Each structure stands twice: as structure tokens, then as C-alpha cells.
Amino acid sequence: MSPWTSLVTVLALIVYFVVTINVGRARFKYKISPPQTVGNPDFERVLRVQQNTLEQLILFLPALWLFSIYISPIWASALGTAWVIGRITYAWGYYQAAEKRGIGFAISSLSSMGLILGSLIGIILDLVKLPGI
């Protein structure tokens, strides 16, 4: 187990926890009662940040750990840190206006793609080294 990869995992979960709390705060601020999810564009942007972050976590966390195992925990942590920074930038921009989410989305998406592709390469290289194949 890598403490660096573990730290990045916890940071990613903290980011998700914060954006989830922000949904509750926005519900109160914009008077959007559950289960309602529409009615105020400012609330809808806060909700989309939370939903998109959840959607991205599904790709990010397994890719982070696979990259850490098959390539390098340090490089996984570096790419993972970029992902966390990207998600914070995404949220901050999207909270202001939908048009301002692009840079954060690009940073986190590129980080995820690097982790996924790196993991795939590492796994294939490991399979090639197996005796009897």
C-alpha cells in the first residue's frame, strides 16, 4: 500500500464530501426542497458539480490505484493530485457560471485519461512478463 496514493484517495473523497455539503447548503439558500432538483440555475450548477464529481470518481479511484500498483505510486499520486486540483477548479468555476467549468474539467479529465492509459499499459506489460504466455 502506498501512503501517497492513500492520501490522494482521502483528498478526493474530501472534495466529494465538500461538494455534497454544498448541495445541501444550496438547497437551503435557493429554497429547493428535496426531492426537487430544478427550479434555480444557481442550485442546478451546484448539483451538477456534485453529480459530475461522483461520475468522475467511478473512473478516477480504480485508475489511481491500478496505476499505483502497475506503474508507480509517486506518479499515480502526482496525477491524482492534478485530478483533485482539477475538480476543485471545476467546482469553483461552475459555481460561478457554466462557461467557467472547462479548465477544471480538462485538468481532471486529462489526469484520469493518463491514469487509465498508464494502468492499461502497465497491466499489459505485466502480462507479457508472465511465464507460460
TrEMBL record:
Chief location: membrane
Domain of life the protein comes from: Bacteria
Alphabetical keyword list: Membrane, Transmembrane, Transmembrane helix
Single GO cellular component term: membrane
Compartments where found: Membrane
Pfam families: MAPEG (PF01124)
Topological relation to the membrane, as annotated: Multi-pass membrane protein
TM region positions: 6-24, 57-85, 105-128
An example Gene Ontology molecular-function term: glutathione transferase activity
GO BP term (any one): leukotriene metabolic process
PANTHER family xrefs: MICROSOMAL GLUTATHIONE S-TRANSFERASE, MICROSOMAL GLUTATHIONE S-TRANSFERASE-RELATED
Protein name, entry field: Membrane-associated protein in eicosanoid and glutathione metabolism (MAPEG)
